[in-house]
Amino acid sequence: MTADRPVIAVVGNDVPRQLVLAAGARPHRLTGSWGEPDAEAQELLGATDATAAHILDELRRDDHGFAGVVVCSDAHAHVRLFYALRATGASLPVHLLDLPREDSRAARRFGRFQLDRLIDFCTEVTGRRPERDALREAAAAERRLGEAIDALRARRRAVPPQCTGAEALTAYLAALRLDPVDASAVIDAARSTADGKAVRVHMTGSNHPDAAIYRELEARGCVVTGEDHDTGDGAWLGVAVDSGDLATVIDGLLDAHFARTGASPTEYAAARAALTVATSERDRADAVAALIRDLDEAPLWDVADQSEGLAGRGIRLVVRSRVRGGEAIDAAAELADELREAVAA
Amino acid sequence: MTSQAVARERLASATRATRHQKAWFLDVAERARAGEPYVLANADAPHEILRALGLPYVVNQWWSSIVAAKGAADASLAAIAAMGLPDHSRQYDVLPLGALELPPDRAPWGGLPAPRFAIAERSGDVTHKIFERWGRRAETESFLLSRTAAVPAPEGWWELVPDRWDEVFGAERIDFLRDEFDLLIGWLEERTGRELDIAELARIMALANEQAEWNRRTRDMLAAARPLPVEVTDIIPAVMVPQWHRGTQWAVDAARRLHDEVAARIEAGAAVWPDERRRLMWIGRGVWGDLELYRSFQEEFGAVFVWSMYLAIAADGYIRYGEDPLRTLAARFVGITDLLYAPPMSSSWYAKEADGHGVDGVVHLVADDTPGSALITAALEERGIPVLEIRGSNADPRVTGDLRERIARFLRDRVPARPAGR
Question: What class has domain A135-236+264-344?
Answer without folding.
Answer: alpha beta
